[in-house]
Predict the 3D structure of the following.
Amino acid sequence: MKQYDERTEFDQTFQSFESIQFDERDKKEVYTNIMNKIENKPSKNRFSKWSKHILTTAVVAIFFIVGGYLLTDKFIMDQANPTPLDENKKTIQTYLEKEFTGPNEELSNILDNGIISPEFNAYREETYGDLVANFKNMVNLNHILVFLIDAHMNGYQLNPKTIDIQEIEDTQNNVYNYKVEVEYSKGNQVNTATVTGIINLDENGKISMIRKMDGRELLEKINQSIHTTLKEVETAITEQGLELEEPDLPSGNAFIQELNDVSPKAYFIDERTLSIYEFPTVQAREKGMEDFEEKTATMRLVPHETYTNKNILVFYVEGNEETNNKIKTAITELE
Amino acid sequence: MEDEIKKQKIQSWYQDHSNGIYRYIFMMIGDHEQAKDLTQDTFLKAYNHLDYFQEKSSDKNWLYRIARNVTIDFMRKRKPIRYMLDSFSAVPSRDLSPEKILELGEKEKQLYRALGQLKRSYREVIILRKIKELSIRETAEVLEWKESKVKTTLLRALNALRTKLLEEGYKHETI
């Protein structure tokens, strides 16, 4: 649905604002001002004379320690890394290679045991921890192992055929465009899809943000093999002895609204609403479900059952137990 | 509380939260120099009122609450009449986008401009939830609203934002 797409796009644009930086120079200036003001504030404490001296000493000490550290850091780092630009590109290259190579045997074995496991968490952190500024954030934003999980689920191997990284000039931050031509192969079949995006690095050369990532083509291609059609769902339900009748529904029904750009096919079973959404991919279905939750967050919904399988999402409203079970069987057996 | 301990606390908070606080204020008022000053005021206020900080909320939420109050005070003082209008209806808050926004790109510029035209409660709930990525609970604490109010206001705010953007011919692009 258009509305949902726009909101998703907003979310990415919203994230871009995270790159607005409080420059180090300004940060230090404000810090010094705060400390000066704190220092000059007459203290109500009877030990104020003492604390004033202690505070002054502390500020001077911090100034030298921080200043000394920054200077040392700058000189040592400058000597060790004569071209930070190359280092940044290298970091991005490593991240992209990891994201688009495999899955290897180790990862496949871990994924076979599900993605909610300490082994999976450890693998992710070990593989990506050094490359990114905030690992937890990256995981939450779905920037880690997105493609390899889907490749594994569908029996594909990925390989980055070409990686192109270009610095975006005229920005204060380290911002790079990237474009990866990814080979996805299964048996003898080899195809390619392109993934693009923008990566920001922080002042330490760690990946701080990935935005405008477009990997739709690759995800759709590797997920195509697990697509179920509306027709197949209809057949499975009628095979359970249920009759799909033409519905008579008010337009405001929450269970027949567009979700993530997909309108459902609606029916009545025993005069109760059944809606079937056929999404293009599993990911689209997951987004569709999120869309539903967000749109109905403030509504009081009537009792309903939700069934999902692969790219299919089904709602059945206020059904009896027997019908609910039959629909559940029909959807579960859509393998 | 001992002055030295208070100072250490402020130093540590400054280290952890000054970037976020600055960005929040900057997004609210769109002026780098003022945002710097208000960031400074936020931490000074926190230092002066540290004895009253009861750790009922997290230190981060407390700081954002102070930042919010400091920012609202500033907006009131800056343009009292516009502030009142701003609280009740949507009026353009800034005609020119600040340099830091222009650097980000066209979409960001359009979004920022539309955001500036929303009423203040919409703007702050969007900034806290969507840009600062505070949880619903954290946002509720900062704004001193109920969680349900955060949810409904956010939905309305996003709808209003969408309408504004469409009015201005925001270029639609699917992901």
